[in-house]
């Protein structure tokens, strides 16, 4: 899908990741920009293009390292950028972050932004870690500004010498696209839908521990299953609801998968187009991740007034106020995870208090419009610095950047 003038291009590797831009493109259009998106081909391309009413360009990009295919993708991206000549290019997700920022540098795009959404290298080892470290340095070097989606991610990237402090920034308190509060709020209609889902899944009045995401080692699914088996010794009516899909890259151990597939208190559902009622099915939401940028699911669960247990991993540590909106545990510690979940399952008043505090925090700090307005202002700043035309300002909100 293409056509019409383009002054801003947002790029991600997979069409699935286009959902990370949902609503953002419409906001930029209202703010006077002419945005477009670029991604690999896939089922979400047409949907997001129509929903956001923007031009959408596709170039195949491999998630894993493939020198021949990566070089071909780089050349194709360069050709797209040379043809449409945007003033601003903002690339995120690992492979697009590398290929698109490098192509934008080669095409001499005036304003180049890299949105750092996480560091795959944190859990990599050996030569793979070295390659991932190099690709991050290249992406950061090609960009004029690097937007880190959480304060801890910015600190980590600087500490690893991937980016210089002056170039790295965080929009507001972080997150990749903010949260549509209205979409996840516990309305009477959603609560009724959640009650029906509980009946359909034969959960009744059971205590439900929930997880939404990819079933991989990096997401801590193995520790979650181990923690749940510990909890079942104490809470025999507890169930573990897993919503997501298995992935071959970074696959969980076969024994863990066999335990999940065996059931016995564990229910598995595929990703849902409308996920909001499923948060309301849960009593506690758990994200036992080993690394993050800034987890959207944690914010979504908190808008649904569900307390969260997550880890002190990069990115995840910013998503919860420990002891106020949820509980933080060490990375990879199944015993501590079981203890934290058990503490919440044992105390309905604590769950309610943390759930309400979480929703208030998200509404106060992470509304989408707040982040979008700061992103639009950043673009205006970059354009002014280079003496380029600046769209008329539709809003006057002050740009709030976490810089040190």
Short description:
By secondary structure, the protein is an alpha/beta fold. The protein has two domains: 8-178 and 367-385, Rossmann fold (3-Layer(aba) Sandwich), CATH 3.40.50; 181-365, 3-Layer(aba) Sandwich (Rossmann fold), CATH 3.40.50.2000.
N-end to C-end Cα span: 41 Å
For the report, how would you describe the main beta sheet?
A: 7 strands, parallel
Query: What is the strand tally?
Result: 13
Q: Which CATH architecture of the largest domain would you pick?
A: 3-Layer(aba) Sandwich
Order of helices and strands: EHEHEHEHEHEHEHHEHEHEHEHEEHHH
> What is the count of distinct domains?
2
CATH class of the largest domain: Alpha Beta
Percent helix: 40-55%
Strand content: 5-15%
Low-confidence stretches: 395-404
* Continuous helix count: 15
Mean pLDDT: 93
Query: What general form does the structure show?
Result: globular
Structural class: alpha/beta
- CATH homologous superfamily placement of the largest domain: Glycogen Phosphorylase B
Radius of gyration: 21 Å
Which fold name fills CATH's third level, the topology of the largest domain?
A: Rossmann fold
Structure description:
There is one protein chain. Helix 12 links the parallel strand 11 and strand 12 (308-311). The protein has 15 helices and 13 strands. Helices cover 43% and strands 14% of the residues. The protein has helices at 24-30, 44-52, 67-84, 94-106, 126-142, 151-159, 181-184, 188-200, 221-232, 254-262, 276-281, 296-303, 334-345, 348-365, 368-385, and strands spanning 8-11, 35-39, 56-58, 88-92, 111-116, 145-148, 168-169, 208-212, 239-243, 266-269, 284-287, 308-311, 326-329. By secondary structure, the chain is an alpha/beta fold. The strands form two sheets. A seven-stranded parallel beta sheet has the order 3-2-1-4-5-6-7, sandwiched between helices. A six-stranded parallel beta sheet has the order 10-9-8-11-12-13, sandwiched between helices. It folds into two domains: 8-178 and 367-385, Glycogen Phosphorylase B (Rossmann fold), CATH 3.40.50.2000; 181-365, Rossmann fold (3-Layer(aba) Sandwich), CATH 3.40.50.
